[in-house]
Amino acid sequence: MKKVLLLGVALLLIANVASAQLPPQGYFGLFYDVERTDWCYEGTGMVTFYFFALPSEAGLACVELMVVPPAGFFIFGEVYNADVLSPVMGSLPAGLAACFGNCYYEWVQVLSATLMIGDVLPHELAIEAFPGSAWPKTLDCLIPANELETLPYTNLYTNTVPCPGIANTESTWGAIKNMYE
Length: 181
Prior knowledge:
By secondary structure, the chain is mostly beta strands. Helices cover 13% and strands 40% of the residues. Strand 6 and strand 7 form a beta hairpin.
């Protein structure tokens, strides 16, 4: 009886994971916390931020984007996820291209870095296209891999009151709910 109960619980867990669907298009997010709940900061000085990627339904193998800080702001001290392969091409402010050793099918932290905030004026650090690309993108896990436009989920904001909400693009309610699983 105990084995049957354990088998039933295992099947429920597998069914729950299988039912979680990724969005058809991936997202990039910049956050001030690893829980992905804060993208606004008030004040000046140095603060850590985190770059996350949510893959499309075909998974995530590589990322390619750029984040240009405003004048007087600096991004430095990038620390990559241990699964990011070497070499990494560039950096966030110059244009970053990086690939993982594994394929991801859920939010994954790509890197953390330090942001030096230079003034108390409102600013936005926006996710932009890698130099020479038409848009920020990911490579999926299919063979051959596809380059997919990847939308900004959140940008970073400094001294912006009120804090802007999550970027909104046309999507289904199911896709939005799945971003939080």
